[in-house]
Amino acid sequence: MLHEVLRHPFVTEVVLCEPDTALIEVGTKYLGFSADLGDPRVLHRQLASEPALEYSRKHDVPFDLIVASPIMPSPALVSSGFCHNLAACLAHDGVCIDSDRVVLGLEEVRWYRDTQSSGSTLLRAIQASGDFARVEAYQTTSQVSAGGYIGFFLYSRTACSYAEPAYDFSGRCYNAHLHRAAFALPSFWVGLMSGGMHPC
Amino acid sequence: MLSFESPSSSEGHAREWWHEQTFASGVSQALDMRRIFAARSEFQEIEVYEHRVYGRVLVLDGTVQLSQADEFVYHEMATHIPLLGRTRQNVKVLIIGGGDGGILREVLRHAWVTSVVMVEIDPLVVEVSNTYIRIQGDYGDRRVKLLFADGIAYMEEAARTGQKFDLIVVDATDSTSPSKTLWSARFYESLSACLTDQGVCVDSDIMTWANGTARLSREPCEVSVFDVARSSRYFAGVESYFTRVPLYPGGYFAFFLYTKDGSSHAFATQNYRGRYYNSAVHRAAFALPTWWQALVDPTIHLSEE
To answer: CA torsion B122→B127→B130→B135, rounded to 10°?
Structure first.
């Protein structure tokens, strides 16, 4: 994630909140990400998501982009207070990105995190909180992950849509066509976003 | 009632991990499911399993063909894109394989599809699918003719007698025994010979991109899709699109459209809404990753890592 973010020269500052330094060591040693951590724009803070948000709210707000890692925070921790803090850390026209997997079952179609907890997930808490004006969804494909689709959620305080690329950029996978196409969702997703869980 | 399990309720459930026997991409999957049927036909090993979330799962020669939960994704995307990507009337369809009935169910949704010939090599796949999977492909529909025969031999005979089709769906297994000889020069020649001038043939496979190389799970085969795309020997145009099928891991689920006149099917000519397919999804399916564009367009260069 850091590697991709740093491709853009207009990204001037990145705060990486990762409490587990062993993960960082693995990334540096085996996955070739050492150059990224050495980038002068990057600040690593050894904090988990909730203390990191608290700290950021006091010291470095606002952010234009907040990337919620797939395991942040644990479902049991998502409260309206957490969503409020997240919104407070975000610039007015900023965006927070979150993701989950679709489990396409025969009798139920659900987000993976909804199947793992009886508590509120970040998606459901954001939808209920009123701190964000828009939740926009898009999807992608991962070659090795089995069993479902990967969905991304964009939480923004303005009702801005991200479906149209503003810059011309082409990566090894990403391009402008793929950007727009990611927002074309299969028919069965309608119920997923609204919380309805039964396939049509 | 099938249901998801929360971590706390999984204790006490005896896991029965079944491991898929595909090695082409070095990626496979394991499913916790119970076998309810197994038989060996003249052509292949046929099994049916029961999975708590995906329902019944059809396995041929150790490879997952479909589950009741996700079969609609492949069947809708293989059918409605070639059918709706061009204005057509009185459409004659040929299905090569398709023994589970899913392609048949989807093509019959359009009243302007006037005849369907389905050529399946293995009668037992049809029987087992009808009994255990129940996808509801209607063999009783008066437009349908079901034949148990070899697909290539049928197409050669059709070409000899001047019979042509507007849509040919190649719905075969990727790499298991009955399909081993399918993607040959003889196959592409007979395919081309019984396709109408404005017709389209749809073919599909799992495509994996790794270390700068794209590979289909059926490879190595006598004639690769990429060879067909590069030469104009069999078809003037090969257009590709993709989707994602949950129980086909290890890559992108790629579709290839072969045409004699090089026409595009990238836009829906009429509105239709399935459980997966819709007009926006139709168009979006043709947006390819940059590495895939570079495979078909030599003017596109990939950045080095």
So the answer is: -10
Do B55 and B86 have their domain in common? no
Q: Which domain holds residue B43?
A: 7-67
**Structure tokens, A148:** 């479902």
Nearest CA in chain A to B77: A186
> Going residue by residue through chain B (305 aa), what tens digit of pLDDT does each one get?
345 555 444 455 678 899 987 666 677 789 999 999 999 999 999 999 999 999 999 999 998 999 999 999 999 999 999 999 999 999 999 999 999 999 999 999 999 999 999 999 999 999 999 999 999 899 999 999 999 999 999 999 999 999 999 999 999 886 566 666 788 899 999 999 999 999 999 999 988 888 888 888 888 888 888 888 888 899 999 999 999 998 888 788 999 999 999 999 999 999 999 999 999 999 999 999 999 988 877 777 776 55
* Domain extent listing, chain A: 47-98+117-162
Residues B167 and B227 in one domain: yes
Assembly ipTM:
0.87
Q: Indicate whether B49 and B75 sit together in one domain.
A: no
What values do phi and psi take at B145, rounded to 5?
Answer: -125, 120
Active site residue ranges of B: 171
Please tell me the distance from the alpha carbon of residue A95 to that of residue B103, in angstroms, as a whole number.
42
Mutate to test the interface with A, among B244, B248, B297, B303 (most CBs of A within 10 A): B244
For domain A47-98+117-162, give the CATH number: 3.40.50.150
Number of domains in chain B: 2
- In degrees rounded to 5, what are phi and psi of residue B155? -65, -35
